[in-house]
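Data deposition worksheet. Section B asks for the primary sequence of the deposited chain exactly as it was used as input, without tags or linkers unless they were present during the calculation. Section C holds the resulting structure in token form. Section D is free text for depositor observations; keep each observation to a single sentence. Incomplete worksheets are returned to the depositor.
Section A, Depositor: J.P.
Section B:
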Amino acid sequence: NYLFGELIVRLSQAWRAACGPEAEMRIAVFGDEATIVETDADLLIAIGNYLVSNASKFTVLAPQIYISLRLESQQLRIAFNDNGIGVPAGEEELIFNIFYRGSNVDQQRGMGLGLFSARKISQALQGNLVLAESSVAGSSFVLTVPISAHHNLAHPVEMMAA
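Section C:
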């Protein structure tokens, strides 16, 4: 269990490290940071690491990554937006296949495991990862995972002492 605010800090620190020093990363948060959420932070970190790593790798410009975390009634919705090369039309679902590499990746290193792994991990969390939008100006991936959310009426320190 995590306070939503603590989860945000943990995720953002890990994802900043994964995107590299040359990338600009911004995070927007929507939801009560005092809400207690039940989820697996390590698996969320792994999914985000795949996405921000790809965003940093598959771009011709300085990487720009925008992440929004939205706490909804029974789910956490995380959108990852980048300024990368995008996904070619017709390959929107293929990119989630094991060993599949987009037809536009040219000489970029990789084995086609990242998005496959990210989606499998999202499914292990009973969630889903989709490519919401893509163009030559970037892509938007959306991760939704169910959570058990409880409003924290007590002060966080009091909760820890209990």
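Section D:
Helices lie at 4-19, 41-57, 114-124, 156-161.
Residues 152-162 have pLDDT under 50 and may be disordered.
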